[in-house]
Amino acid sequence: MNVSVKWEGVYPALLTPFTADDQLDLPLFEKNLHAQLDAGIHGFIIGGSLGEASTLLNDEKIALLESALGVSDGRVPVLVNIAEQGTKQAIARAHEAESNGADGLMLLPPMRYPADSRETVTFFSSIAQETSLPIMIYNNPYDYKIMTTVAMFEELAKLPNIQAVKESTRDLTNITRMRNAFGDRFKLMGGVDTLALEALLMGCDGWVGGLVDAFPQETMAIYELAKAGQVAEALAIYRWFMPLLELDIHPKLVQYIKLAATATGIGSEYVRAPRLTLVGAEREQVLQVIQTSLANRPVLTTVH
Q: Which are the catalytic amino acids?
């Protein structure tokens, strides 16, 4: 039985841990999931950009889904990301996710092809009509070169299972545009770590996080304090967190965040080719950021 997706709170975009011989490291994956649940996160997202989706085989995605469903055991929803070049393939992945127990989907626009507005709306709509699962549209024109505009969401609003938006435009005014246009029709989830507190204060319902993969407690503290109106306390943690959060907006975010998760004991550095693990001065520079932050880790404020 599917877990209801409320589209609020903190949803880690999960890393995919590998072994030294390039197999899925499911025990380490599950260790990270338990750390996330212990911190109080609200949902899991499998196979996103941070999960190295483009390098995963379909059966590996299913193995990760089954593992996450087992750990979650109905406590939080488990979402599968769909990132495909073709509509037919995207529909097939949606069917697989649904038949294997996923609670919801995150949809990226078509990969590689710079689809226009009509093509993008048709792509999203075609997938939504082929599944009963609730859907979050990933709006990230910065990385994927396709902007899902308010006018496009007016069309998508006709489909009841398109329920949420991962807001990664890097334009905070877009949150207000969406609220002005649609009220609460779409749940909004901030999707850029370095704008996360701002997005929450502008009215986002939740945070799809990256550094949460290494620092779940701190991520949850910021979310809970922001939602409780304890902005000064949230801001103090956020300012400490910012050098780490900036690791999320780099082309090597996977390697950087995996290094952070290794430092906190809930990840490993292994990545899948063509990515390579960090070496030399770059690795030392990122480690310095991580180690400096760990040395100054804040005492977390509780909500009152």
A: 138, 166
